[in-house]
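name: query_chain
kind: protein
chains: 1
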Amino acid sequence: MNISQSIPSNTAGGRGQLVFRVATAGGAIPLEGARVIVRSQGAEGDVNRGNALSVMYSDRNGRTPVMTLPTVPRSQSQSPQSPGVAPPFLCYDAEVFLAGYRGIEFVCIPIFDGVTSVQPADMIPLPENGREDGFDYEKVTVVEGENPNL
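structure:
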C-alpha cells in the first residue's frame, strides 16, 4: 500500500518514525511474534480513516521494525499553536495482538517530524481458562496524552 495515499495532504515534507516495544511483566520480559497493526487516524468522515498502513511483528527482543510515517513538518511546530489550527504532529492508531495475552488498542500516537517514537506495549497475560469472572479480556484501550485511570 502506498502510505502517502492514506495521509492528509497538509503533511508534505514531515517524516517521523515509530517502533513498538512489546513486553510483559511491566516491560521486563520481551515478547516475540506480537502482531502490530498501524492505522491512519484522519479526520472524522475522512474516507481513509482507519486504513491499515502496516502490519508488523515483534522480534525476539520485543521490537518491531521502524516504520517511517508522514507527519506535519517541523517548521510548523516552531510557533505557538493558535486556536483552530492543527497541532504540530499527526496521530496514528494501532492495535497489538498476541495469543494468550489481552489485546491493546492505542489511540492517537503522536508522530513528530524527525523524531523516532518508541511505543511501549505491556501485554497482560490471560488466565489459563481464558476468562475470569467479572473481568472483560477483550482489549485494553490506551489514549495517548491522557493520565491513566489507576
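note: Residues 1-7 have pLDDT under 50 and may be disordered.
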